[in-house]
Amino acid sequence: MFGWIHESFRQLVTRKYGRETWVKIVTLAKFEEGLEPDIGHYYKDEDTLRMVHAMGNVIGIPIEEVWEAYGGFLIQFTMETGWDELLRAMSSDLEGFLDSLDSLHYFIDHVVYRTKLKGPSFRCDPQNDGSLLLHYYSRRSGLYPIVKGVVREVARRIYDTEILMRVLERKQEHLETFVMEHVVFVINQVC
Fold first, then answer.
1. pLDDT by residue (tens digit) across 172-190?
2. Sign of the C-alpha dihedral computed for residues 126, 127, 132 and 137 taken in this order
3. Coiled coil where (predicted)?
4. Number of folded domains in the chain?
5. Which of 26, 65, 133, 142 has a CB 3.0–4.6 Å from the CB of 61, allowing a cystine?
């Protein structure tokens, strides 16, 4: 994963729990302090997962909660670092924003970082009752809680609304050369 993700982990932990907690996490994850958040570096998924497991152990919360908290903070940090106008310009409503996430990931992966990576994919289906079904597809298993944090924070910060979001279904789809995680979320706006 991109080093920018490690830097946003560092920002999240130091802001909420302090520098000492971050140093404990870095030590437990077996990173050399100061080298763990190299923004321009691409870290193996195993390195990032080691960092996340260390965060969960030191802070004392389950991994799913680490990922969800990270998803929410990711939007805050992204907006603070100059991406707020792009995020706000993606769509006039949450459904359109969610339908634009594939394009955003393509832009980040191929234009900003000039890689050939294949990020997650999203598809949004409006329901007759006003709810949305969000389909999330990823080659990386277990990262779906990030989506909950991201969507909740986007709804709050960009669309000034509160939502309830839950996992309706989670499955592994075995394709020719890899396994794709497919998670379906139900999103309801809180009135």
1. 887 777 788 999 999 999 8
2. negative
3. none
4. 2
5. 65
Which residues are registered as beta bridge partners of 167?
Answer: 185
DSSP characters for 13-48? HHHHH-HHHHHHHHHHTTPPTTTTT-TTPBPPHHHH
Q: Tokens representing 99? A: 């339908």
pLDDT (0 to 100) of residue 111:
43
Which contiguous run of DSSP H or E holds residue 167?
Answer: strand 162-174
Query: Looking at residue 101, which CATH number applies to its domain?
Result: 3.90.1520.10
Q: How many CA atoms, within 13 angstroms, populate the side-chain half-sphere of residue 129?
A: 7
- Determine the structural domain holding residue 15 and report its residue range: 3-61
- Higher confidence at residue 163 or residue 87? 163
Same domain, 51 and 107: no
Distances (CA, A) of 183 to 96, 137, 141, 177: 19, 7, 10, 20
Tell me if 76 is assigned to some domain.
no
Residue-averaged pLDDT of the chain: 87
